[in-house]
Amino acid sequence: MPKLGDLPRGAVGGASTIIVVLLLIISGNSSALVNGLVFGSFYGLVALGLVLIYKSSGVFNFAQGEFGTVAVYTLWILLERGVPYLLAILAGIVAAIAFGLLTERLVIRPLFDAPRVILLVATAGVALLAIGLEFWIGGALLRQVRPISGELGRISPFGVNVSDQQLILIAALLILGGILAYFFNRTNLGLAIIGASQEPTATELVGISVKRLSSFTWVLAALLGAVAGILSVPIGGSFGPGYLTVGSSGALIPGFTAAVLGGMTSMPGAFVGGAIVGVAESFALRQSALAFIPGPDKVMIFLILLLVLALRPQGLLGKSA
User: What is the dihedral of CA 17, 19, 22, 27, to 10 degrees?
Assistant: First the structure.
């Protein structure tokens, strides 16, 4: 009998998703399914950014959440000053991209040839520095950002109202995921990034600058973090320093779990992992039998992470080592 780790990637991912959906519907937890998919889209966007950096350089980026937090702070500051929403969003994305580019140029590039664990610690240092600056500039106050659209019940699957803001978040994940999948599989630049991650010396020998590809990758990751933060903050209700890392959303660990669950090198896996983590978290919060556990949603996330690492460390759609 084949082991779980030996089964085809697509079969494992598809079967897992279908089983989770059917169990929730049959057990009468369809509301957990809907709400979980919304938050799963948020986690999926964070996971996409993590997978992008890991896929291209083999580094887990602890600063991914702070790319989004910088964008959220920029958005809030401009909205408070009466700047139109669309312009404030664009400015937030630009601020996150600038932060991502500075991180790559000032921190990652000088350590380009260092062991991966040094780069991992360096990204954690960037995140801590950003959080410290957010406390220093804005204090520890919680703030709010209004949604793009105030419609709270555009559609109602299984009797659960889904707002326009939530629909935009889901659409953003699907669109950006599709664009990235096409980019890495069908474009010369995307294939060059994959080639540089696997054979950097050979990539340099054919005239492609690995360092320039690194800058481009970090810009893309920062853009994904910005979109995740900007579109999720009106849904979450409030934000503060370290919003996406350790703040009210705390999306970095769920996003990491989603990336590991889907496969750290798999873009489609970020979709599947985000959906499963979001639904599992929502399910845990709605179970009265788990009320005695402090933070049952967080416990569920760590349980999923431990099970994946123990049973299928390459993830549902990842490749075996």
Answer: -120
